[in-house]
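Q: Can someone sanity-check these two? First one:
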Amino acid sequence: MKTEIRSYIDGKWTAPKAGRTVRGVNPADTAETVAEFVSAGEKETLEAVEAARRAFAEWQAVPAPKRGRFVARVADIARARAEEIAAAMTREEGKLLREARGEVSKGLNLLEYYAGAGFRMSGDTVPSEIADCFTYTIRRPLGIAGLITPWNFPWAIPCWKIAPALVAGNTVVFKPAELTPQTATLLVRFFEEAGLPPGVLNMVVGPGSAVGEAIVRHPDVRAVSFTGSNEVGRRVIEECAKTRKKVTCEMGGKNALIVMEDADIDAAVTATADGAFGSTGQRCTATSRLLVHEAVKDAVMEGLLAAAKRYNPGNGADPASGMGPCVDRKQFETVRSFIESGKREGARLVLGGGAPDPRGYFIEPTIFDGVEPRMRIFQEEIFGPVLSVVSFGSFEEAMRLANDSRYGFAGSIFTREVGAVMRFIEGAEIQMVHVNEPTVGGEAQLPFGGGKATGYGDREMAEDGLNFFTQTKTVFINYSGSGSRSMVR
């Protein structure tokens, strides 16, 4: 069954009369077409920006708590239709149905958090340096926010961008990934059903080369929030600088999990397998590198090889499946190329590497041992179920290996020794630190993002995510009657 996909501009669902036709297939069964639509482009994007511009004045005047209530209504609607969202996500993105349900829950948490943020749009009251002057700050919206989201979390990431942008008083032009338009359409329909005024939220479904470029370059767009590849993210940052836009980018990771000699082996194995193979490794916080102390290497590998076999590839709608497919042929071929690169460079393939089912874009859980830091599979983001294993002899060596990456997103350490924990927290060149748990995960009330080549600009989620979409206004109320602002005492 195909789903009709349209863009949503100024409160109307529209589609281009002509243009490139996009055919979306179920990545677990490529014979099934899940969406077919004519892709929007620059024309529709300009119309969306204009609609957002017209709507901004009235929307920013709506009290922040009332803006938050629109988001609260969306949360209620989405909760009642959670299974529909999860099923759509599984069909078009491929993740297991239970993983999709988990993503729906995370999106609901984010919507609920930001629904209440309208009551927290606070500034600071501080004493003035001069007599008879009241000073304080308030936070005000930026204007039009351009939001560009990826395919791997097609529900949660739009939730954590759209909700704070709207509650802060901005209007939005939203570009979802062309691979996952159904899930994005459901979210926008929920906002429509919640009664959001026309033009406040606009969605344009099209390629980054047309829609994304038009959003980033448009002088009326005052903020851009982007999640995607490092290569595209650099272009977004450069283009935003030309028109002095506020910008935040999250651009991938190469995350390491360290297993010390005193670690709980079973727990470390469970966390590593979940981090490496959960969501088919298609997470920016996925565990891509396992650094294991030589004293426990054999025990960890034995447990890991057994655990990995539970991630049997299959259709995400089948409860017996342990891992879904890659999202499309391009990603499938990318992961296969990394596997071949690992073999050529001398790493030892100890598990997987094959494509077990030609009906979909499936790749087996794959583990390389004997990996060296110079290898591509150690340094580059793969975005697939491929784990590189390296052994070490000391904590200092483990830290050098962990920090030997241009990325700085997430990491974890398994140990019972508090000194190692604290040194890891302080010394790891990452911004999401985990102890005795997987490298994956984030919560609505906590900042999310990375450093180095991973992130640029403000963090997302929590109060940081709300603050990105605002600007600070400083107020001086002088009631001395003198008309002077002398600093002389």
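And here is the second, same format, sequence then tokens:
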Amino acid sequence: MKGVVDKVKDSIERMPSLSPVIHKINEVANSAKSSAQDLTDVIQLDPVLTAKVIRMVNSAYFGLQNEVKSLKPAVIMLGLNTIKNVALSSAFLGKVSLNKNTKLNGEEFWKHSLGVAVASKLIARKLGVDPKLLEEYFIAGLIHDIGKVLINNFFPEEMNTILEEALRKEEGITDLERRVLGLTHEEIGIAIGKKWRFANNLLYSMGRHHQPVMQGDSAVFSMVVSVADNFVKILKVGFSGNYKIEHMPDELWKHLNLNEEAVFDALSSIGGEIEKAVLFLK
């Protein structure tokens, strides 16, 4: 009989791969030598993705005054990094769906994910992050719970047990997952992120939002998504199976130079921002 780890590995292999175009987009956007034309040329290799990116760019989320009808002006106006992340989110959401075979409500799950995406971006803005990098925080929040999608779709019995046990609010979700399944959604998330060749910033967001890392180049993504996830639970935006509000360590607040009051202030516009961002789920 196969162990849980082997079954999870098999399940990850059965998850769809991202388009090779996405990997090329990442390469081009991350190269200092790339121009707007270089990124436009790569995205246009995928006509469906091109249409989605233009639609997103023209949405209320970005609030541009004039309609953008082609890719190159969108890249020039919003920057390579923002367009890269719009393309990444489009591709990611096109590949991932929750099976309706457990007690986890798909609509509430995605509402929570979108809430964490928006909250991560708002917190990053409060931290004074370069506006060109804010969309990376949005994507980090959007995909943070991808490991739960695999548990839901491939281990429905275990997912239902985890959801039932979580109602008691006695254990954190990762402790429950380890007890019931043997692995956590964070560990599974990192494995999926590696399959999809995501950058470290996103891997830290997927794999360390319950035990945030506080040292290293990508640590801030881990910390910001951790805070966003907890506050979205407090604000009851959607639901991803986790009832327990987690303690945020003093060291984390010190590293971010934030406190709870500052976070609530940063998230005061979260409702309106989520409404604008709903297009990402369509």
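A (reply): Looked at the second one. The chain is about 65% helix and 0% strand. The first helix runs from residue 4 to 14.
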